[in-house]
Structure formats: structure tokens, C-alpha cells
Amino acid sequence: MRKQVTEFKRTFNTGENFYSQHLLGARPSKNDEIEGYTFRVWAPHAQQVWLAGDFNNWDKSLPLTFDSNSGIWEIFTDIPHEEQLYKYVIQRADGSEVFKFDPYAIQFEERPGNAAVLHTIPEKKWQDGLWLGRRKRSNHFKRPLNIYEVHASSWRRHPDGRLFTFSDLTNELIPYVKEMGFTHIEFMPLMEHPLGASWGYQLTGYFALSSYYGTPEEFQTFVETCHINNIGVFVDWVPGHFSRNDDALAYYDGTPQFEYSDIDRAENRGWGSLNFDLGKPEVQSFLISNILYWIEMFHIDGIRVDAVSNMIYRDYDMGPWSPNHEGGNRNFEGFYFLQKLNSVVKLAHPDVIMVAEESSSDTKITGMVESGSLGFDYKWNLGWMNDVLKFFEMDPIYRKDNLNLLTFSFMYMMDENFILPFSHDEVVHGKKSLMHKMWGDRYRQFAQLRTMFTYWATHPGKQLLFMGSEWGQFLEWKYDESLEWVDLKDDLNKKMQNFTQHLNRMYSEEKSLWIHDDSWETIEIIDANNTSETVLSFMRKGKTKSDFLIIVMNLTPVERQDFHIGVPYPGVYQEVFNTEMVQWGGTWTAHNTDKKSQDLQFNQLPHLIQTTVPALGTLIIKPKSVNVRSKK
Hints:
The protein is an alpha/beta fold. Among the domains are: 2-117, Immunoglobulins (Immunoglobulin-like); 390-418 and 432-469 and 491-632, Immunoglobulin-like (Sandwich). The chain is 24% helix and 24% strand. It is built from 14 helices and 30 strands. The chain has an 8-stranded parallel barrel. A 6-stranded antiparallel beta sheet has the order 23-24-25-30-27-28, covered by helices on one side. Strands 3, 4, 7, 8 and 9 form a 5-stranded antiparallel beta sheet that branches. Helix 3 runs parallel beside helix 4, helix 6 runs parallel beside helix 8 and helix 13 runs parallel beside helix 14. The radius of gyration is 27 Å and the shape is elongated.
């Protein structure tokens, strides 16, 4: 056992211990048949460390001993008991003393308290084997991926204002997501954080489910129930920066320990936090252990890594910065850490999806590490999102001159594996909700929201939508209040919710919308240059010649009658989706009739059909009876 601990310490110090929670933190153990706990904490420059808690009146009666080879302090004691509170008293390098929590604690007391809880998660007999088996056998690049982004404490609350725990979310969120037809739920960070206003992005307890949301066991049950209902679970994770609270990781032993020693690199001025020193081996062991802990302890299907640009560019933040040894702005420590992170995760769990929230185009984000990329599976396409929202906020009179905002993405859509996000960042801080961004009166706003969502669902790439947007909530998201569920008493909001549900189900059922998402084969542009009428049309293609959809978007409030649309084969074509149907909040009571093709050239296509395209509406057309063997 002693040799094993020595090896664990060695690999922790070299950045190769990816299960360091088995070494550090508080662990039940025995010493000469006496049952108790072993506490270990890394604090290499502390002068002394004491264990304090409920069990010793928070005094300094339990000093830890120091291993100078590893920088780790430790103690075995049989005094504490399960569910009691504890912290460490750290005598820092300058002699000052401060209470610090355990970086490896797996549970904390409820706010405003911030002590760690001695808690052991019992071994769980998981019931999601069928889901995990399918996950291993499937290729997520060739499967539908339609993510519902959730902030766990504001999706819904009890009538008296109490937060939903994961027991509540199991009962209410899972049936809702299943009914709405989303394939995955993505949670904004669930780890312990001291301030709700940070939305969970300034973490303190990386190994602990926030006390806001109940117990770790409740979250395990939530994920298991999601999997039984064929819903995947993603979690946001923040390995780039952390809360600067003095009782947390910040200057833990009185020196730059988790953060860079260079103050300009340590300070994250834009977010008021501290940046991890991603080149330090012990920090690598801490963070990689943490991501594997969440994946394995909770059977998480995917991790979205937040703020990747902040980790790979030295000049991403405001304020002074120094170039690297080559004279550039590359943060080599962050770049190589992310490659190492993805390599380790993929070696252990090749079927877990890794997603980067990254805003530049200077670094290859997705693909194999061996090819020079960071090794992620997907990257958020923030450029696409910004262009699309800018276009739909625009008065239609100007859209003919700005159609490139919608078509530019066709030039680079295969440069990375993209997720198309309409995320929480776009519906807060005065940016207005998605529905409120749309041009025009309320009726036209809903019409354009339906068209924008249809473009999002039919554009190559996977999808993410923030909660409340599915019914067109008018008010901005508030992190400390429930969504405006009262909106659904309004007819237009309810019809918008029904529309999103129908669109989600169509997306999942139509293979042409995802089977070739990572290949240019997936799309053929019919007409991206119709600026005079401002109508965009393109095809999405499946595996067979007859499996394709035609998407026609009218981006002005003028109905286009007898409109020409190029088609690849002679035959009959059927309208299967019309965003202006009355059931969705539009005015159309019936679909366009089936259309027989004409042998007239349209751009590169040998045939065309004529139909009516509704004002500010989108049509989806399928081949009903066509001759795919025709040479013309």
C-alpha cells in the first residue's frame, strides 16, 4: 500500500495521475484495523496545515504531516464521521493563516456555508447498459445531435421559489425533453460555485455537484433515467480559469499554486477570475482527473469545454500580455494541455463527445491530435450564429444586400465539425431573447423565428438551443428566476413550442439532415444568389439518390408566387413542411399541392418546379415519385 501511495504521488507530480482523487481529498481508510479517514492535500509551500471541522470545534488540534518529495500533506484520523463538515487551516508561505476548502471534496454544505462535507458515494448498480452499448457502437458524426441547453436552477422552480433538485428535474425535465424531441441535454456548469451570477462558470469545488442541486446520487439517477429514455447528457466544464475567492483554490498555499506565477497570465481581468497554470504537471493531474471523474462517476456522454480561446491565446484577455518564446500569442501550455486532455479522454472513452466553445479561426480545433488539431469532436460555430442573428434582426429592405450573412458559412462549413449554437450567451445582458431580436411586429417575429429555426435545423452541423427559446420567450433569461412558463397560455407561444417539437422530430427522422454532416456530399446549393427576391434554396442529401430534401427560404414579407426551384430529377415533388401553416401560428390552412417537374434548366440542375413560397416563410420539399435514373 505504501508503495502504491508513493507511485500515486510521483505520477501526480509528473502530470500523469489521471485518478488523483484516489490519492488526494478525504477517503475512508483503515490503519491497524482502526476505521477512519485519510486526508491529503497538495500545498507545497505551506508552512503548516491542520484539519478542522465539526469534529474538533474547528480548532488546530489535528496537524497534517508533510511529504517534501511530493508537496502533499496528510493525516489519518478516526475522529470525523460521515456527513460532518471540514476544511483545512493553511499556514501560508508568509505565515498568515486561512481556512481553505478541500480541492477534491465531492460535496459541500448549502450556501451561504462553504465547508466540505465528508460524504462517500455508494457504488451504484447502473441500469443504463443498453444506452452505453449503443453509444459505443454508434458514430455520433452520423447520428442526429440536437441539444437542449439548460441552466439547472432556472429552468423551473417550485411555486414558493425553492430550486429544483435533480430529483425534481428527473420527474419534470426528462419527460419534457423527450416530448419535445431533443436528443441531448447540456447543463451549464453543475460543479460547486459561490455566486449564482457567474452561472456556474467561476468554480470552486471541481469534484462536487453544487449543493444547489441535491446530492451526487440524485444526479446519477437523473443521468441513468435520461439514458433509459434515450436522452444523452452533456455537462459544461471550465478548466481554463477559476474563482479567486480566498477560501478556494486561489493562491492556495500562499504562492502561485494552481495559477500562473506571471501575474499578467494569472489574472483573468475580463472575468475577474484566475487562470490555471496549464503547464504545471500537478494542475494537469488535477484537471484531467476531474474530467474523468465526471465522465465515469456520472456516465456523462459529452463535455463542453468552456472558453478555449482563453486557454490557447496569451492576448485573449484585456490588459497587458507577453509574447511566447517565439514572439507570438500562442499559449503553448494551454494548447498542449488540451491536446493531452483530449488524447487521454479518447483513449479511455472514445465514445464520449468532446466539444469546444472557441471563437477564433486561427487554430484547428476538431480532428485528430496527430494532424495538429486540439483533438475535439465538435466546435461551436459562433461566427455562423453571429451572422444569422445579425441577418434576422435586419429590416428586410436591407437583406438583399446582406444575403451573404446566411451563405458565407457554406464556404467553410466543413473546415471543422460544427455545432450551431443558439445558446444562453445570446439571450442575456441586454441582447434580448431570440424572439425579441426578430424584425417586425409580433406576428412577423414569430414567422421569422420559425424560418430561422428551420434554417438552423437544415444547415449542415449539429444543433444546440437554450431553454425557453423553443416557445419564443420574449423576456431575456434571468439566472435567478424560473423561465416564463406563463407564456404558454398565449396562443402564439404555444404554437411556437409545437412548431419546435415538430421540427425536432422531423430533424431526427430525416437522415439527409445528419447522415453526411461531416462531408460536402451532404449539401448542394440550388440558388444562393437570388438577391432581388431574397430567397435562398439548397438541398440536403442522404445516402441514396432519392433521399434528399429541398429547402426554400423566403426572407422578405412578400409572398413569391409561381416561384422557380431547381430539382435534380424528373417527377413529382411534395411539400412536407411549411413554416406558415396555421397550426404553427401562420395563416396557411393547406400545403401547396404536389408539383410535377418541368424539363427546364435551373442553374446547374436539369429540371425545375413552380410553387408559392410564403412571406417570411420556409418550405421543405421531398421527392414523391421521381426517376433517379434519368440522365437529364
